[in-house]
Amino acid sequence: MTARLTPVVLTTVLVAAGGCAAKGGSAAPQPLWQRTFLSTAVTEHGQPRPLVAGTRIRLTFDNGRVQAHAGCNQLAGQARVDGDRLVVSQVMSTDMACGPEGQQQDAWLSSFLTAGPNWQLDGDHLTLRTVQAELRLTDRRSVDPDRPLVGTRWTVESILGGQQTSSIPAGVTAYLTFDPNGRVTGSTGCNTLSASARRDGDTVTFDAVTVTKRACDGDAARVESAVLAALTGRAAIHIAADTLTITQPDGHGLGLRATG
């Protein structure tokens, strides 16, 4: 499945948010910057608002932007504060089919964020309020700490292609495991691989990649090609909770999840 960024149709709300932006105000507050929050409670009209089973709202504040996820599409928009209000505008969304419940939850979150909610931060606890709804969240590092790069089995879930992200086809399993001796082993989805992997902060330099010689075709061949391309030379890495991204300078790479 391929995800593309498309505008979220929220004309009335976006116009209102734009009007607030015109009044000026500061950039997003420093206490929120470079932090990710996960929902702990959602209420609407004073009553609990159940989320779709198996989902949780995630908000990431990063350099004048907010990224949001409610279990279906990825949302992203400009973010700043105007006093005690959070102003979110120019919201874009990926366009993945997630069923009516997931899409409705995405639309609700988009409307909530662009309605200019009041915000209050108390340590690791963030509360956003509108007239009708309240969203309570906790810093992700308290709720779901980062997994270590070394010793974790990272299973490939997606292929990053610059502006597009493709999910791994059903029936193909590719994974990586980094060891403390500067090596990575695993599977390309078809062949077994081994390589040197020298970490330096937020980058890893891959070298001397070797793979077995099993013939691959179809989906397995495409996944193997993407895995080997990601493990070439110096790549950026980022770990957030149980997810790892490996990104080449051209934006191509892999999205992986801790599975052991």
Automatic annotation (TrEMBL):
InterPro entries in UniProt: DUF306_Meta_HslJ, HslJ-like_sf, Hsp_HslJ-like
Pfam family, one: META
Stretches assigned to the DUF306 domain: 50-134, 147-253
Acyltransferase as UniProt keyword: no
Keywords assigned: Signal
Signal as UniProt keyword: yes
Signal peptide residues on this chain, from the entry's feature table: 1-22
Top-level division of the source organism's lineage: Bacteria
Name of the featured protein: META domain-containing protein
